[in-house]
Amino acid sequence: MNQSETDFDVQRWRMVQIIQAYAEQSEARTGKTEFSDRVMRAAAKVPRHAFVPTEAKPYAYQDGPLPIGYDKTISQPFIVALMTDLLEIRPTSRVLEIGGGLGYHTALLAELAGAVYSIEIIEELAQQARKTLNEQGYDAVECRIGDGSRGWPEH
Fold it and tell me: Model pTM?
């Protein structure tokens, strides 16, 4: 199935609407009835389909995790939005992401923070993430291949 960018735009808008509906329904567990406008604008802007393997593109905007190879997944959009919202990232924030995968959450973080540093232990995922982030215009994100358990001290 070959989808156009317009198809993906429509699907991304629906994904954002689903995230909003889930936020309202999960208030008892999260204490929130909605996520910040900044987080929702980032979710509406970042093309999730660009950050998944070709065979997963038709499912990129479904609200569920997707396999990205190496026994790893890209997280469910609602969970990504929830995690990101709970961080309360400001334009001056510096964010360290451990386990950047193929870069989708990295791109969301880049829409919100002043600086993003992403570490991924699987070299092939890290290389693909860097390539996709560059193609999508996220050149300012710094990526590193390695074990993030000790952070990135110089940042």
Answer: 0.91
- As a whole number of angstroms, the distance between CA 105 and CA 43 comes to 10
DSSP of 78-137 = HHHHHHHHHHT--TT-EEEEE--TTSHHHHHHHHH-SEEEEEESSHHHHHHHHHHHHHTT
Rg (CA), the chain: 15
Give the span between the Cα atoms of 102 and 118, in whole angstroms.
11
For the record, the structure tokens of 50 come out as 């660009």
Q: How far apart are CA 84 and CA 79, in angstroms?
A: 8
Tell me the angle at which helices 5-25 and 77-87 cross, rounded to the nearest 10 degrees.
Answer: 60
Per-residue pLDDT of the chain (155 residues; tens, 9 = 90+): 467 878 999 999 999 999 999 999 988 888 888 899 999 999 999 999 999 999 999 999 999 999 999 999 999 999 999 999 999 999 999 999 999 999 999 999 999 999 999 999 999 999 999 999 999 999 889 999 999 998 898 88
Q: Kindly list the catalytic residues.
A: 75
Question: Taking the chain, what is the end-to-end CA distance rounded to the nearest angstrom?
Answer: 43
